């Protein structure tokens, strides 16, 4: 599924005579090689494509997110995402338009790709839910089928991908930019994008014709209790209004729930993984440590599919970039900013 970031040829990731044995070095026919790090990820972001020495979230930001997500505060969001994915698969099954893995068309395998995967929380939790042994009956898949989904993803932050690889030891993860996703054409069935930048042209290129993009963005009340401490006159977050060029909305869901912050560690981790960390003073941080007992998690989940006629015009989409710019709760804020600098140069 991977392609060389330099010449765009397919990368060999497993031994030819033993497809179940991964290679320690990924190779293309032009002899470009990319070593697998000891943590299990591969860096597919060429030096010449970097806009900074260490693009994306730093180690401290990743550590804060890892700490916050350790208690699974967004479990309802993961559950809803899994339900949305299941409903899409079931609907496509019924209409005989099920997107298939081009490598294995007999095994009812669906490729799920996390664009801007961060520390791997959503990949890990979704794989646990979607690979549940009871899922086969729900999807109408034969009982002897054991694998229903494959998972992969990228992030521009090396620190984030290292954390994601540690969390998801059997998932292929790479360091890469959303502007140049190192994935083969028409190889993915579902792309998920949670609080991350998007590139419509790249999504159109790597998706199957019946594939979908699932985006998650902040709804108006997201983390409002935190805003009340940071701002004198807090305002509701403006509803996300971005459009993926060449795609149309086929589903949209709103999900809101309360997140308990039982420990000081959780409260500070939440603060550190948002832009608010840089806006707060010592007094405000003290209030957050002692008073912020819960926050509202508020999300908009949108399902996109390529518009009719867009399939034949993918070239026109190649430079089309849509960026989610949430004002609050940006889980991958630094990575977004690095990709944004690249977007400005690309357009």
TrEMBL record:
MF-aspect GO terms: 23S rRNA (guanine(745)-N(1))-methyltransferase activity
Domain 23S rRNA (guanine(745)-N(1))-methyltransferase N-terminal: 2-53
Keywords: Methyltransferase, Transferase
Keyword Nucleotide-binding: no
Enzyme Commission number(s): 2.1.1.187
Keyword Methyltransferase listed: yes
Domain of life the protein comes from: Bacteria
Uppermost EC category: transferase
Gene3D superfamilies given in the database record: Vaccinia Virus protein VP39
Protein known as: 23S rRNA (Guanine745-N1)-methyltransferase
Organism: Brumicola pallidula DSM 14239 = ACAM 615
Recorded name of the encoding gene: rlmA
């Amino acid at each position: 599924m991977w392609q060389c970031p330099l010449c765009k040829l397919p990368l060999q990731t497993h031994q030819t005579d033993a497809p179940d044995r991964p290679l320690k070095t990924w190779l293309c026919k032009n002899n470009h090689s990319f070593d697998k790090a000891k943590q299990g990820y591969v860096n597919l972001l060429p030096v010449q494509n970097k806009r900074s020495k260490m693009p994306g979230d730093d180690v401290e930001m990743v550590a804060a997110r890892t700490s916050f997500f350790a208690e699974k505060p967004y479990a309802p969001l993961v559950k809803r995402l899994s339900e949305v994915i299941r409903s899409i698969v079931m609907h496509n099954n019924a209409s005989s338009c099920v997107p298939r893995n081009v490598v294995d068309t007999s095994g009812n395998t669906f490729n799920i790709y996390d664009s801007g995967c961060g520390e791997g929380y959503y990949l890990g939790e979704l794989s646990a839910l979607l690979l549940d042994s009871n899922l086969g009956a729900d999807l109408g898949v034969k009982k002897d089928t054991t694998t229903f989904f494959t998972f992969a993803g990228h992030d521009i932050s090396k620190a984030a991908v290292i954390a994601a690889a540690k969390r998801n030891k059997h998932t292929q993860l790479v360091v890469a930019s959303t502007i140049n996703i190192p994935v083969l054409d028409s190889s993915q069935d579902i792309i998920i994008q949670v609080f991350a930048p998007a590139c419509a042209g790249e999504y159109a290129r790597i998706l199957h014709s019946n594939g979908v993009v699932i985006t998650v963005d902040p709804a108006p009340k997201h983390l409002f209790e935190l805003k009340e401490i940071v701002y004198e006159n807090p305002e509701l977050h403006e509803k996300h209004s971005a459009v993926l060029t060449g795609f149309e909305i086929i589903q949209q869901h709103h999900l809101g729930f309360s997140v308990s912050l039982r420990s000081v560690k959780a409260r500070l981790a939440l603060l550190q993984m948002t832009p608010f960390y840089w806006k707060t003073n010592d007094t405000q941080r003290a209030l957050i440590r002692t008073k912020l007992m819960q926050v509202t998690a508020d999300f908009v989940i949108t399902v996109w599919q390529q518009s009719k006629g867009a399939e034949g015009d993918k070239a026109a989409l190649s430079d089309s970039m849509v960026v989610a710019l949430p004002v609050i709760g940006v889980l991958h804020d630094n990575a977004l900013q690095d990709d944004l600098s690249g977007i400005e140069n690309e357009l």
